Amino acid sequence: MNEKASITEKKLRDAFGSDVLAVSHFRDELTIRMTAARVVDVCTLLRDDEDLAYDLLSDLSAADYPEREKRFDINYHLYSLSKGHSVRIKIQVAEGESAPTVTGVWPGANWHEREVYDMFGVEFAGHPDLRRILMWDEFEGHPLRKDFPLTTEPIPFRYGGSRET
Amino acid sequence: MATQPATTTRRTLNLNVGPQHPSTHGVLRLELELDGETVVKATPIIGYLHTGIEKTMEHKTYDRALTLTDRMDYLAPLSNNLGYCLAVEKLLGLEVPERAQVARVLLTELTRIGSHLVWLATHGLELGAMTVFLYCFREREDILDIFEMCSGVRMMTSYFRVGGLALDLPEGFEDAVEGIIETFPAHIDDYEGLLTQNPIWLQRTKDIGFISAQDAIALGLTGPSLRASGVLHDVRRACPYSGYETYDFDVPTRQNGDVYDRYVVRMAEMRQSLRIVEQALDALPDGPWRAEDPKVTPPPKQMIHQDMESLIHHFKLYTEGFSVPPGEVYVRIESPRGELGFYIVSDGSAKPYRVRVRAPSFANLQCLPKMAEGHLLADVIAVMASLDFVLGDSDR
């Protein structure tokens, strides 16, 4: 398993050089952080290279670290059905920065990216249908951000008529 | 009379199915564009059951957050428990004792059978086979009785805890499981007798809702639906957990990728799950049922009445909770619906920093348009049933 994981790292370094920003191992998992702008090329290589063959996008999700300048982690959990290896590819984007869509690599990324947009507000450039998926269309805010409160109660009407925000 | 246009254009009808609908398996909304009876475009709209479980879990200690996991895929609550516990245990580097591992496998497979029974019941009911519905729910009661015997709760058991089980297996457990092992095969034969060669069933399910292996993988379809399209992928085999590599079981696949094949795969899976249950029952050892690690496991109840240390220990665990070293893990298990993944990030505190649940129903639902478009309206019902999604899972 460790050998296979190294193949992934090696091939990514060969192809992308300094765009491989960090590699870490924790328990038996391999995480490789890449430059956000290259993610489509990275994913295409990971999917199409015959030794890597990451054909299944298990998950595409995000996490919010607001104290960081690039506050959003976007994680791509990949699995190869033929080789049996897994990898976590990570990119970081700042607020207002968009990430490229990988729907061209795995069509299944469509809904996952919509959920990241809905919950975190990260836009995916080139996404065919980027709109909210879990919250209703008119909802304001991005719930899974750390600065979004756990409970909110939107006040639709106030006594006295005028609505204050 | 208004002037007629020179040419008539064929227009489609937009039909809204759900979210309140008996056949959408929960609160799913489908916008269908129909040309007569033929579905030109199908757009699933979800989110009606979104309750913010992931965010809520960030505000609870690890053991309290576990109780939320039952509520996601509510037809397979123990599967959710298992995935979560495995992820936290991986972060902790905690080893789970043998008895708990075997019990987890046994109960998770019973959960799989229970979930498939609901799938079959509703699938049958929607296509008109009402007898199947009643039979399946009657048999499922036996399984729910076992869960109640173990945990006091029929469905939302939260029976698996970080480190093992919440309580030891009760007396009478083995006899009850033995009873299921003996009686179930005949029940599955009954269901198959009613459906598998039934001409009406065949007409409603054969060559309906096809998806190719290639499309399925590209869309992230997993579970029995993927296996019905010929892809031999089962997380229990691919990334074994809880000792699954020591059990002897087949992973059924089919080649046609239609509703009928998805039915056949799940029927065969029920039989395979029974095999695993039988092996687990034989292999069930004595011993501790939770990791004897005072960091995560509370002291035995009777000790609390006897010494101050145990009382304080119990108190601290149930108020502050246990802290988990910083790190991130992604653990995948095979739930009855497919790959259920837990991505947990810990920051060293007693509450998870981020819990991301990769819900199989969410990914599987994405395939609905591909399967349903081009078919008749009635076929959409069959396709939805064959996908076996649960809205609690897809929406969380």
Polypeptide structure, described:
- The complex is a heterodimer of chains A (165) and B (396).
- By secondary structure, chain A is of the alpha/beta class.
- Chain A has helices at 2-16, 39-48, 109-120, and strands at 20-26, 29-34, 56-64, 72-79, 86-93, 99-100, 124-125.
- Chain A has three helices and seven strands.
- The model of chain A has no long low-confidence stretch (mean pLDDT 88).
- Chain B has one domain: Cytochrome-c3 Hydrogenase, chain B.
- In chain B, strands 1-2-3 form a three-stranded antiparallel β-sheet. Chain B has a three-stranded antiparallel β-sheet with strand order 6-7-8.
- In chain B, β4 (160-161) and β5 (164-165) form a beta hairpin.
- In chain B, α4 runs antiparallel to α5 (130-151), α4 (98-126) runs antiparallel to α11 (259-283) and α4 (98-126) runs antiparallel to α16.
- The mean pLDDT of chain B is 92.
- The A-B interface holds A 26-27, 29, 31, 55-59, 61, 63-64, 75, 77, 79, 81, 84, 86, 88, 106-112, 115, 132-136, 143-144, 148, 150 and B 46-47, 50, 52, 54-56, 59, 90-91, 93, 217-222, 231, 233, 238-239, 327-330, 332, 339, 341, 343, 345, 353-354, 356, 358, 362-363, 365-366, 395.
